Amino acid sequence: MNKFLKPRVTYKNEDALKLGMFIMLGFVIGDIWFGEVPDTTVMMVALLFYAWRRDIAFAHDEKVGQAIGREANELALRIIIVTLVIASFVSFFVDTMSYPLESFLYFTLAFVFVLKGIGLWFFMPEKTVEAEPNEQ
To answer: Are 11 and 52 a contacting pair, CB within 8 Å?
Structure first.
């Protein structure tokens, strides 16, 4: 086999999700730059962020991942309930909404996925990092 065809670097799933996050953030910046509302791209960034954090949480152990996921879901649910209560009080003072419902749904899904991803990140147990001596 040709030495140029051999893979030089192996990519893990986490690396691919990190790369996807940066690409999707670039799409969001591009949408804003061109004057469009980045509703779909924001939702996709949030979904990719949640998938990335979920992959990391379940990489160690299935039971640990489920415990982290349960705590993240509880946190997300509490924040969503508080947000809904605040939104109900704000809605008394708003006459009409001039924003498309489809975009509103995309941003709501993005909010939920980001909350769950942040919860997965927040409740991740501390890892012990073993330092290897530098070989020169």
So the answer is: no
pLDDT along the chain (136 residues), means of 10: 59 73 84 83 86 83 86 91 89 76 85 90 67 48
* DSSP designation for 12: P
- Residue 23 region, left (φ>0) first, then alpha (ψ -120 to 50), else beta? alpha
CA dihedral 39, 40, 42, 46 (to 10 degrees): 140
pLDDT in tens, 26-44: 888 888 888 887 888 888 8
Query: What's the CA gap between 57 and 136, in Å, rounded?
Result: 34
Q: What is the pTM of this model?
A: 0.71
CB-based contact 41:28 (threshold 8 Å): yes
Neighbours of 112 (CB within 10 A): 19
Among candidate residues 111, 103, 71, the one with its CA nearest the CA of residue 87? 111
By the 8 A CB rule, do 48 and 110 touch? no
